[in-house]
Write a sequence for this structure.
């Protein structure tokens, strides 16, 4: 398994564990599907929780009000690109 | 104001089912089922899930006022947040959002699109009398019935010996009316006890002849 797959799986597990998605497995998360609203169905509290998890695990600080944050959270692939580009640990 | 409440139906839940002696038709199984949508259910612990199951069982049409009491609330997660703050760690937004006393009723109302009056209360051990007073108020206003529910979650070990607690997570709900059902008779006031949901269940099951709270409560014949 290459590093991209490793990070994809790691992010899926981070989402499942952090957001306590007890009925969801990593294979249920489509990297192209929206994380919020339709698709996975996460809500605004999940967005805050996910932002905190990114800070704890990867040292990435996001501005909750910024438009680019919406883009980073649009789907798993976007989140993957963010972590690859901005992780400090 | 004299009480004129009647018990139409009830349900009880105990985390440790082995301790429960009540008739199976009044029992909510443990662990509670998956009646709530998964994305809402994940935010509640077993006590919250059981509370929602009891509410759905007693108010299947989601059209009655609801009163929910808990003396201590979700102490496990509250303590976790306090420990995070003490350690200089950020607290979980999810836990913070769920730390209000009416969080369980809120989740239930979203899941069932329940738009009737709801209230959550804590009463320092007088929860049983308090929910009956509130229920009576709604009934006097003209509602046909009210569901009054009383729950306690597990108590973290740090609090053991510092407060009264039934020793297990438990919940009991009653559908109350002004007429049909078994009469709830209040005498006193006695102010002799702080009944927990576990004791209320024992009393409703007929294990004890009366329940001592701010009043001495007796249940009329079926």
């Amino acid at each position: 398994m290459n590093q991209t797959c490793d990070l994809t799986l790691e992010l899926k597990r981070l989402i499942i564990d952090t957001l306590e998605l007890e009925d969801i497995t990593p294979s249920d998360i489509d990297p192209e599907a929206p994380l919020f609203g339709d698709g996975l169905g996460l809500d605004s509290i999940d967005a805050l929780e996910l932002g905190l998890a990114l800070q704890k695990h990867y040292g990435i600080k996001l501005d909750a009000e910024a438009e680019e944050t919406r883009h980073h959270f649009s789907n798993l692939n976007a989140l993957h690109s963010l972590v690859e580009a901005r992780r400090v640990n | 104001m004299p009480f004129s409440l009647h018990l139409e139906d009830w349900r009880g839940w105990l985390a440790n089912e082995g301790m429960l002696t009540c008739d199976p038709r009044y029992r909510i199984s443990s662990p509670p089922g998956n009646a709530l949508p998964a994305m809402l259910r994940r935010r509640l612990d077993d006590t919250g899930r059981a509370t929602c199951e009891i509410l759905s069982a007693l108010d299947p049409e989601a059209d009655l006022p609801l009163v929910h009491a808990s003396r201590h609330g979700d102490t496990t997660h509250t303590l976790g947040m306090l420990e995070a703050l003490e350690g200089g760690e950020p607290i979980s937004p999810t836990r913070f959002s769920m730390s209000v006393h009416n969080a369980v009723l809120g989740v239930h109302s979203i899941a069932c699109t329940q738009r009737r009056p709801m209230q959550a209360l804590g009463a320092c051990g007088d929860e049983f009398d308090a929910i009956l007073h509130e229920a009576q108020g709604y009934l006097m206003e003209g509602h046909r019935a009210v569901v009054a529910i009383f729950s306690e979650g597990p108590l973290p070990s740090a609090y053991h010996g510092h407060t009264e607690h039934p020793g297990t997570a438990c919940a009991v709900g009653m559908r109350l009316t002004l007429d049909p059902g078994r009469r709830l008779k209040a005498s006193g006031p006695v102010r002799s006890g702080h009944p927990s949901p576990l004791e209320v269940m024992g009393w409703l099951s007929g294990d004890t002849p009366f329940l001592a709270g701010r009043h001495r409560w007796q249940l009329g014949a079926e």
